[in-house]
Amino acid sequence: MIEVERILRVDHAGEFGAINIYRSQLFVARYLYKDIVPKLEEMLGHEKKHFNTFDRILKSRNIRHCYALYFWAFGGITLGVLTALAGRKAIWVCTDSIESTVLHHLDWQLDFLSQHDTEAYDAVMSIKADEEEHQDFGQTHGSKSFVYKPIFWVVRQSTEFAIWLSTKL
Ligand SMILES: [Fe+2]
Ligand SMILES: [Fe+2]
């Protein structure tokens, strides 16, 4: 079903983007914020596992990956580097912003998949707890200060745009 393929493809691309964000934040953090390196590594580990989950399903069903996959990588690296250079709190604001946007999408996906595709439903369900934990951590370690509002907003818009684009490509 076309809608199921679309969901699997956008989630696969999203995890690829997430991997690139954490990788580039880690690159900066190894120099500037060594204390958060283990946490970022842990989150990167989750995103790799999520990516593999969707990658396996796409391959087993012969579904092509998103044409915008390399745009996600580029976007991820850009967001990762810029937020990391804006400070350690900006890293967590970025996480909070992305995950709250993503979780919103996961909810309607789960709603749809529960009626149409058990395997895809299980795959999306299997990543949800990790993403909730990421958002939670981002929210508590980020900042509610107005200084970070533009970062939160830009990251949210970029995430929404990437998701929108990937449903077209
Ligand atoms: Fe993920
Ligand atoms: Fe995540």
From TrEMBL:
Keyword Cell membrane: no
Keyword Transmembrane helix among record annotations: yes
Transmembrane segments: 66-87
PANTHER family: 5-DEMETHOXYUBIQUINONE HYDROXYLASE, MITOCHONDRIAL, COENZYME Q10 BIOSYNTHESIS PROTEIN 7
Name of the featured protein: Demethoxyubiquinone hydroxylase family protein
Record pathway: Cofactor biosynthesis; ubiquinone biosynthesis
GO MF annotation list: 3-demethoxyubiquinol 3-hydroxylase activity; metal ion binding
Lineage of source species: Bacteria, Pseudomonadati, Pseudomonadota, Gammaproteobacteria, Alteromonadales
Biological process (GO), any one: ubiquinone biosynthetic process
Pfam families assigned: COQ7 (PF03232)
Keyword terms: Iron, Membrane, Metal-binding, Monooxygenase, Oxidoreductase, Transmembrane, Transmembrane helix, Ubiquinone, Ubiquinone biosynthesis
